Amino acid sequence: xxxxxxxxxxxxxxxxxxxxxxxxxxxxxxxxxxxxxxxxxxxxxxxxxxxxxxxxxxxxxxxxxxxxxxxxxxxxxxxxxxxxxxxxxxxxxxxxxxxxxxxxxxxxxxxxxxxxxxxxxxxxxxxxxxxxxxxxxxxxxxxxxxxxxxxxxxxxxxxxxxxxxxxxxxxxxxxxxxxxxxxxxxxxxxxxxxxxxxxxxxxxxxxxxxxxxxxxxxxxxxxxxxxxxxxxxxxxxxxxxxxxxxxxxxxxxxxxxxxxxxxxxxxxxxxxxxxxxxxxxxxxxxxxxxxxxxxxxxxxxxxxxxxxxxxxxxxxxxxxxxxxxxxxxxxxxxxxxxxxxxxxxxxxxxxxxxxxxxxxxxxxxxxxxxxxxxxxxxxxxxxxxxxxxxxxxxxxxxxxxxxxxxxxxxxxxxxxxxxxxxxxxxxxxxx
Length: 431
Description:
single chain, alpha/beta, Beta Polymerase, domain 2, Rossmann fold, 3 domains, six-stranded parallel β-sheet, four-stranded antiparallel β-sheet, elongated
């Protein structure tokens, strides 16, 4: 099995494509099961956020795995595979490992250094674990991915400014409101993870008073109480829209919450930060007089989303070292079948010689036979111990695959390997 990551993000797709690709939390288990049911996909983890949808997979063949995953994403999104391919990036082998570590470190985020991606990756891994779609390879990759992300944030301070999509959107909003948001009234629609982050960020930056609404009033009330805000029943949304300066949309609704008709009734200038995918603001409402909509597309085009922190170089160095470590583990894991085959061959030889000996010496008692068998097995195990330990160590080094190949050649071992058709050069970007 080899690692393959396929996805679309703000770098390769606009929000119109992402909102068709986005996978609701409730649909993740079913999609994972569809993925691992494909002929070339053995393991799968799905990450779906407001600005990226990615599949990490263990595949038995590059082209087959690529086709299987693309077809599942195409069926899910309703986007023809030929059209979808133009929005996807593909990473294979070492490049898939590097991409995973860069994502968890915040280097590939819309706002470089944001820490929310770690929680999103953790949730994705948890979902895969629950439906048993992650095997040995993805368990190791995801555990190391989370560890590398934590290390990058802890050791470099890449997220020291508390950067997030919310802070970037507020920066844009501040420009429309004279540069200062202090004392501006705001409404947050949605009380999930992004809604909670929005409330915390707005509170920290001095925006207020804050009101929170959600289809579940109890959830909005709990969040409001935690931050000293006010909860508003969802059926009072129209009235509140006419009172506030800023609206942050962060729901999981599959249909627009702020329709054109609803926004036409506001009757005053309003800035809406639409951080939801699918979008909470109806596309036909954009452009209404007095309405300013800041969404994922506008943030992706903003200079605020570009790398600027000096810490990124330190994070890249951490990622490079951790990729080497993971590849060392992977090479060591790949030599394991060869070592196992060698030990099996040795056991077969011992068993065959024991049968020959017993046929020639039928007078041996059961105790004598057992003594001879144990002695032969101990001798073989001692002879094999040092070379098999050493070959595992050597295999973990760059070019280590030659040692496993040498063992297979010397002892004529039959170990299933990937076919030549599956040997694809490393792909570091769009395919």
